[in-house]
Amino acid sequence: MGVPARTRVPCVPVTCHSLAGPHCGAAAGRLRTGSPDGCGPAVDRPLSVRADSLEWGWSPGRAGSVRPPGPAPSASPAGRTWDPHSRVPYDGAVTSAPSPQPTRDSADRPAPDPQQSPAQSWSARLRRFGYAAQPVQDVAQRLDPPYAEPGPRLWSVLKVAPESRPGLTRALGWGGPLLVTLFAGLLRFWNLGKPNAVIFDETYYAKDAWALLKRGYEVNWPKDYNDTVIELGSKVPVGHDPSYVVHPPMGKWVIAAGEWIFGLTPFGWRFMVALLGTLSVLMVCRIGRRMFRSTFLGCLAGLLLAVDGLHLVMSRTALLDLPLMFFVLAAFGALVIDRDKARARLAAALPVDEDGVVRPDAKIAETLRLGWRPWRIAAGVFLGLAFATKWNGGVFLAAFGLMTVLWDVGGRRTAGARRPYVAVLKRDVLPAFVSTVPVFVATYLATWTGWLLHTEKGDRGYLREWGAEHPSSGFGGLFPDWWRSLWHYSHQVWNFHVDLVSPHDYESNPWSWLVLGRPVSYYYESPAPGTANCPTGVREKCASEVLALGTPLLWWAACFAVLYVLWRWFFRRDWRAGAIACAFLAGWLPWLKYQERTIFLFYAVVFVPYLCMALSMMIGSIIGPPGSNERRRVVGVVGAGVLVLLIVWNFIYFWPIYTGHSIPVDSWRARMWFDTWV
């Protein structure tokens, strides 16, 4: 309700709901006062409030309302709306744009009310650890935040005309990620056919992929056949004797696509893996941009992935873990897009008051059906492909399924739902299950098509006819023979994986992965001077190695970034930090259960993208939040820039041992920073 002109106003809390900018605006009304506390002679002064001064947030139908002190009513009167922001836990939907209102320093906060609720008291206690109530925004902006744009100072430095700025900003949304991707592609495809040899586990997957292409199922190969494969290439004979393999076929079908195009050559079996590695950099740029609402931070995350040594080596080697990483990342990105689409629908359905401000509405928030969600179906497909590459991809189905449902809870709560969990249980859980789990199962089974279709004796996959040869009269008889054959085969594979404890020179404990305790050597040769690009003037032999080692400074900085996102999610409830932490933990935590199993550092490539996102997010905080003073920004930019340049330098320094380049053995020893790296 408006304040009459030339009146004396009591000192009461003031609420302002039009917080789309740094000030409340004319529509919020004006406070007539002559002193800073609002109790002096009546003069005309613009109304301004702090975002965290909202206690009940009651509005009688227009912005700028003032509610007298006293207990809040138990229900909103007809024609009036309640702003639930201060009673609704913040779900983390923030942008990197300037905050609409400043928050009050902890020293200015009022003393705790002895009658406050336990949740309020808990929030007050958390402030000592960095918890901060978020500024109140227009509900539409909280549900669908705008993207940050370069400030006027940057435009003036670059001498960009005002009329060109919007178009250039839009172009950078794709142009920046594409430039980073081009850089990553050059690194991954440069001299891809070298070493001209079958390295490490390519001895399994390159040949199995060729067998899938020629037979539809994996076959046994003669021992010590790698040199013959290099010599004969696509002319190598392929038998019919089925082979017992311990991984599903999808990753090998990916490798086979490159062999179909370029033949059975090192370049051919590495081509598709390098392509997926390059595309994953593009996806990280775009996913980071969408999550952080910042093209710069998104491109920074992609750049960090481009210069990670482990990701580079895995992109240049025909193993299954890089395709697994790609499919998991694609599912993650699809769910992030689905989150934005769903929240945009919620925002579009909410009422707009006479001042053009989107208001929360409990009925709409609790009853609105979000309709067709194709990106969730796409996520189900990608997760099925991940599981069909390696079984540890199945962990992400559970983790991402819980994550996307909690995102729906946060969206409905922000829109005004009083019981968001009940609303999601009624409206969203079943559609979420149907759009992911059945799609996941169907996709997984589809990747076994080659194994399923070959049933002729002498031309069929391993254990393909086990069901027909072992009929069942009990419960198993309800299932077709092919299903029971696949189930029996899968049971044997499961027993192999859980019982795999044979020692290996390069096995490592998952606790040591983040600090790069024991990298894996894929290839090592010692060429003599004057041979294999070894300089003629060296005193000793050269060393040519492909070492699956992450860029050390990047990974060690990422250790702090992981702690940062965990802190930011727990104390700030930042959904972006929570999503990154969820994906990282889903890729790392399950391995802690199998510490006695033979496992390797390169399994960690599946969560490398999320380490880069976490590090990009931490660097963003180092640079400083919007509204920081110039000194704070300068110090932050210099510190962040030094860190990024050191990481790039570190990558360049280790480049020779990522790509098998011949270097003097003394130079190789200088790069072995720890004994466990040898």
Automatic annotation (TrEMBL):
Pathway(s) this gene product operates in, as recorded in its UniProt entry: Protein modification; protein glycosylation
Pfam family, one: PMT_4TMC
Region (Disordered) residue spans: 55-121
Primary site of residence: membrane
Domain of life (superkingdom): Bacteria
Keyword Transmembrane helix: yes
Enzyme class: transferase
UniProt domain Protein O-mannosyl-transferase C-terminal four TM: residue ranges: 483-677
Membrane-related topology note: Multi-pass membrane protein
Presence of keyword Transmembrane: yes
Keyword annotations: Cell membrane, Glycosyltransferase, Membrane, Transferase, Transmembrane, Transmembrane helix
TM stretches of this protein: 267-284, 296-314, 320-337, 432-453, 553-570, 577-594, 600-623, 635-658
Function: Protein O-mannosyltransferase that catalyzes the transfer of a single mannose residue from a polyprenol phospho-mannosyl lipidic donor to the hydroxyl group of selected serine and threonine residues in acceptor proteins.
Protein's name in the database: Polyprenol-phosphate-mannose--protein mannosyltransferase
Source organism: Streptomyces polyasparticus
